[in-house]
Design a protein that fits this description.
Strand order of the largest sheet: 8-7-6-5-4-3-11
Order of helices and strands: HEEHHEEEEEEHEEEEHHEHHHH
Radius of gyration: 23 Å
Structural class: alpha+beta
Helix content: 25-40%
Strand content: 5-15%
Amino acid sequence: MLRMLRFWLGATILSGSTAYDALGQDSFDLPPIRYSESLSKDPVALLGRKIQRGELVLPQDSQFGVLPGLLKELNVPVESQVLVFSKTSLQIHKISPSNPRALYFNDSVYVGYVPGSSILELAANDPDLGAVFYTLDFAPPKEASQGVQLVRDRGQCLSCHATSRTENVPGYLVRSIYPDASGRPRTGTSSYTTDYRSLFQTRWGGWYVTGTHGQMRHLGNAFALDRSDPQKMDLEAGANRSELPSRVQRELHLQPHSDLVALMVLEHQIRVHNLITKANYEARQAIAMDVSMNQALGRDSGHRSESTQRRIQSAASSLADAILMRNESPLEQVVQGTSSFAEVFASLGPRDSQNRSLRQFDLHTRLFRHRLSYLIYTPEFQALPKDILGPLREHLQETLRTDEYRAEREILEATLPGWLSAS
C-alpha cells in the first residue's frame, strides 16, 4: 500500500487545482484526460473524417478558397465575422492593419481566415477534451485536385491556449493590446484578456469594431503612436464607427463588418467555454485521484474525499456564475452592431410558448435580455460528468427559484424539460 502511495505522490505534483507530472507534462495529457492522444469527436474532427473518407469535397471559391463551403458545412454564420489586426496569433507575418484576420464562430466552432493565406485556423469543442485546434491547408483554386488537409495541433497552439488566461485548460482567449502602426503590441504597455466581465474601456485593442455605443469608449480601431506615452490612443477617432477604415479593402473578406455585438458575444462564449472544460477536467481528475487512493487504502470505490468535493464544488460554482452571467460589466449606453449578426444569432435558439429565448439581446444595460447563457444547450455542457452536474444544478436551482430569475427558469423548463430537476 505504501509503495502505491509513493508512486502516486511521486508521479504527480499538485499545485492548486492543477496537476503536473514530475517531468512537467501538462496534467490534461495524463490519465484520465489524455488530451493529445485521445480521438476527438468535435464538429471539425467529424467533418475532417468525412473529407478523408471521400464523402465530402469542399467547393473552391475563386477568391476565398474553401472558406465559404467550410462555414456552411460547420453551420457557422458569415454574419459572425469579426476582424483582428494585432500580430498576436499564428500567422503574424501575414496579419496587419490593412490585412486583418477574420474570425467566424457558432456555439461550438471557431474559424480563422487571413486573406492571402492558404491556411485556415480552426478550433472546436469536444465534450471530453474541450478546445481542440486545427489547421486546414487548402490548395489554390488552380490546384483544387490536390484537395485539403486537416491537421490537428500537437502543442504549438497550447503555448498560448492552455495557460492561466484560459483557466489552465485548452481554451480560448480574446486579447486587447495597445498596437503600434503595424499591429504589434507596443513595448512597455499592458494587455488585457477580456470577457463579459471586462470594463468596456479596456476591450478590443488591436481589433476593428463597427457599431455604435454612445459615450462609452473602447480601444478598438485605434493605434498607440505616441512614443513618449505608449498607452496613449485617440479613442474618439475609433468610436462609433459605422464602417471599416479605408485601409481595409472590402473585397478581402466575406463581410464589410467587424460587428460590435458579435465581439461581445464572442467574449461571453470564450469564458463559458473555458469554464465548461475546467469543470469537466476538475471532476474527472479529482475522481481519478480518489479511485487510486481508495484502491491503495482499501476504501470503498465510491468514496469521495473532502478535497475532491471541494474541488468539484469550486468548479461548479465558477461555471454556474458564468452561466448566470454574474459580474457582467453593465452597459452605460445602448450598443448596436452594423451587420445582421444580432438578428441571425437570435433566430437560432429554441423558444418557449411566449416566444422567449435565451438568445434574445438587451443591448441597453447588458448584453442579453435573460441572464442564463444559451451555451447551456451545447453538447459540451450537457455531457459534463454527473459528479459536476449535481452540484452545478444545485447552484442554478438556488438562483433560478427566485422571482428575479422567473423568466429564465420558465424558458429553461420549457426548452429543456426536466433538466433542472434531474438527479
